[in-house]
Amino acid sequence: MPAIPMLFSNKFNVLLLWKCLCLLVVLVGCNPPGEPVKCSTKDSNCTVTNSYGMFPDRAICRAGNVAYPTSEQELVSIVSAATKSKRKMKVVTHFSHSIPKLVCPDGQDGLLVSTKNLNRVLKTDTEAMTMTVESGVTLRQLINEAAKAGLALPYAPYWWGLTIGGLLGTGAHGSSLWGKGSSVHDYVEEMRIVSPAKAEDGYAKVWVLNERDKDLDAAKVSLGVLGVISQVTFKLQPLFKRSITYVRKDDTDLGDEAVTFGKLHEFADIFWYPSQRKAIYRIDDRVPINVSGNGVYNFTPFRSTLSLVLALVRSSEETQESSGDAEGKCLNAKLVTSTLQSSAYGLTNNGISL
């Protein structure tokens, strides 16, 4: 008799998750995350969060003020004034995508410096294949503007709502073992950083670092502790397309194959599902721009999802955890992977799911 309620629970949970996943796959409308900084008075008495709406410990981060510079000159003035007043500063980006509390300043005495309005593409040199942008430019802006010039940033994270300053500071990357590697900062040629300085330097200084400076590597992935990134110059590559195929295999030889697979395909990636003893290999290679097809990679886990759907999925997971429903969790896991597979992992070619 005890098995009957458990069986019913499993079926119910699977059905519930299936409906939620179907909603996740078919929903295409979305909105960007809300403003991460909210102030009770104009730019004062503020709170800051991330694009998820909360930090892992559910704490509320407070700041005395927020500043929105629109140019490097304004940024220098803001850093100078805060340094002179001995205020702690933290940089916040347009969508504040970081999960940990890197953005939290010194409570009501702290200052947030937002790069929201430092959002311009300053220069594109098609002959040198370089592009200079302000640190608040999003990855989407960079990719689109580069494409207009017939150029491409070869490797990037999945979500293009990240800002250039944010993704550099946290070491964001794509997936590749080829060339310099898949980290975005590997394609930085020059950076301009505004840092606190001594009184004789006006309490703020602009550092210009290029490939001849040994400190550039440290500045590329600084977690914001060296100052505020003002401008970045990237070395780009000629525009290209990618050919992607997913292959599902047993994981018996995953350890032996991983490095070999990565060396065979420029943008290789592997999803590993140990509970199912399966691995999904993404065969992902560069192809010429004139190859037919117009592919779009709308990665399913990063799509907009209704709050109700998320709440239902979370409720189902908590019920399984509290009841020790291992069978139900395994069924749900298989349902997730089969749904991703049936939706081609978000890939379409000429508007048609593969």
TrEMBL record:
One Pfam family it belongs to: FAD_binding_4
EC number from the UniProt entry: 1.1.3.8
Gene3D superfamilies referenced in this protein's UniProt entry, alphabetically: 3.30.465.10
Signal peptide, first to last residue: 1-30
Catalytic class of the enzyme: oxidoreductase
PROSITE patterns in the cross-refs: FAD_PCMH (PS51387)
UniProt KW keywords: Ascorbate biosynthesis, FAD, Flavoprotein, Oxidoreductase, Signal
Membrane-spanning parts: none
GO biological process: L-ascorbic acid biosynthetic process
Pathway named in the protein's UniProt entry: Cofactor biosynthesis; L-ascorbate biosynthesis
Record GO terms (molecular function): FAD binding; L-gulonolactone oxidase activity
InterPro entries: FAD-bd_PCMH, FAD-bd_PCMH-like_sf, FAD-bd_PCMH_sub2, FAD-linked_Oxidoreductases_BP, GULO_Plant, Oxid_FAD_bind_N
UniProt catalytic activity: L-gulono-1,4-lactone + O2 = L-ascorbate + H2O2 + H(+)
Domain FAD-binding PCMH-type: 59-239
Cofactor annotation: FAD
Family that this chain belongs to: Belongs to the oxygen-dependent FAD-linked oxidoreductase family.
Protein name: L-gulonolactone oxidase
Organism lineage string: Eukaryota, Viridiplantae, Streptophyta, Embryophyta, Tracheophyta
